[in-house]
Amino acid sequence: MKKFSIMLLAILGMAVTSCDEESDPIFDRPSITAPTGTQVQVGNSVDMSFTIDAPGKIGEVSVSASAGSATVDGSSLVGETSATATVSLTAPASAGNLTVTLTVKDQQSSAKTESATATVEVTTTPPPPANEVVSGAITSNTTWTSDRIWELASKVVVEDGATLTIEPGTIVKGRTGAGSLATALIVARGGMIDAQGTAAAPIIFTSIEDNIEVGELAGTNLTEEDKDKWGGVIILGKAPISAENGDTETQIEGIPPEDTFGLYGGSDATDNSGTMKYVSIRHGGAEIGAGNEINGLTLGGVGNGTTLDHIEIFATLDDGIEFFGGTVNVTNLIISYQGDDGVDIDQNYSGTVDNFMVLHGGSDTDEGLEIDGPEGSTYTDGKFTLTNGTVMTLGGADEGTPADLKSKAQGTIDNVIFSAYSSGNLKIRASYQNDCADAKTDAYTHLIAGDLALITSKFDGVSVYTKSVAADGTTSCSVKAADQTAAEGAAVSSDSATGASSSEFDNWTLASIKGLY
Asked: CA 212, CA 157: separation in Å to the nearest integer?
C-alpha cells in the first residue's frame, strides 16, 4: 500500500510539472526589417527606421555603425512586441558606403538575439528633395532650380508681366492626362521665359513616367515610341499672324475661348517672349480634344525678339514644332520620332529656321515638313526661310514622306537634304478654278513665280497634286502634265547641298545619346 502511494505521488508530480511547462509558451525569436535607399551628406545626420517584431517582447536594443556614429533609444522599446526603432546616424567626413546594424535581444531569453543591417550611401552633395509640384498661374517672377524635379500637375501659365526662370540642368516632368487634365507649360502674351541650359546641363521637359533623376541626361525606361505621356510647351506672342477671316489675333488650338491666356497675334514683329537655349522636350503630345494634340513646341505669334537656340523635340504624338505665324528665328533644332509632322508652318510664319534636323521614324508619322502660307487677308507678304537642314527617314512601319508644300506656301528652302525615303518626292499642291481649266494661287503658282524657292537642296524630285474639284462639286481635277513639267523645271535637286551640322546636337540631346544619327 505504501509503495502504491509513492508511485501515485510521483505520477501526480510529473503531471504538475507537465502543466507548468505548457503554461510557459516558447515564442519565436525577434525579426527586424532594415531600411533601404538611405542617403546622407558627409558630416550630416539622418534618421533611419528599423521595424521590429518580437513575440517574446523586446528586451534590449543596441546599434553599431561601420563608420560615423549611430545611436538609438532602446529603453523606450523594452516590453513591446512590435515597434519602430529610430536610429540617428551621423555620417563621417568622407564619402562612400557604410553599414548600420541594429541588434535586438528577446526579453524571454537573451539567447534569442537577432540583428539586421542597412547600407547607407554617404555623398558629397545632399540628396535631392522631393518633387516640387506646380499648377495654375505664375503671376510674379519665379525661378525653378536644378536641385529638384518640378512636376506639372496641370496647365501652368506664365501670365502677362511675369518671368519664369529655369536654371541650367533643371528637369520638369508633366503628369499624365488628356483633355482638361493635359499638362503643359504655357507662356502667355506678355509673359517671359528664361530657360538657358548648356550643353553640359540642358533643361529637360519630360513625362512623370520617365525615370530620369536630377543630374542625369536620360532615363532608362521610355523609348522613342513612348508618346503623349504629357502635353508640351506653348509660347504665345504679339507678332503678326495671318489667321482666317482677316483676324490679327486668335486663340491657340486646344485652349478654350474663355481662357484669355490662349490668345496670340498682334502687330509687333520684334515682340520678345524670352529665351530658350539647350532645351530638350520629350514624350509629349497629349490629346486635348478630338484629334487635337499638343505639339512638342507650339509657337503662336512669337516675335523675333525671342531667342530659341539648341532645341530638341523627341517622341511627341503630334508635330515636333509648329509655327502659327510670327517672326521668331530658331537655330539648331532637332526633332526625332514625331507622330505627325516634323516642322509645321502655318499662318504665314516669316522667321528663319537655321541648322535643323528631322529624324523621321516610328509607326504613326506623316511629313518631315508641312508648310502652309497665309490663311486670311491680313499679313500676306511674310515668307519663311528654312536653311541648312537634313530631313531623313529612320525607317519603320510608316516612314512618312519628306515634305508637303501646300496652301499658298511661300518662302525659301535653302541647303536642305531630304534623304532615305522610299517615296522621296516633295509634294507641291496646286489649285484649279474655272472647272479645272486654270490654276489659282497656291504653292505651285508660288513655286513657278519664285515666291516658293528650293535652292541648293537635294531631293528625289517633286510631285504636283491637287485637291480641287470641278464645277459639279464631285469630279476631281487632274494635274496638267505641263504643270508637273514646269514644277520640275523650277525645283531642281543639287548635289552641292551639305545639310545640317549634326555636331551641334552631340552629347546633350536624347537623339545623340540613343545614337539616332
From this structure: 24
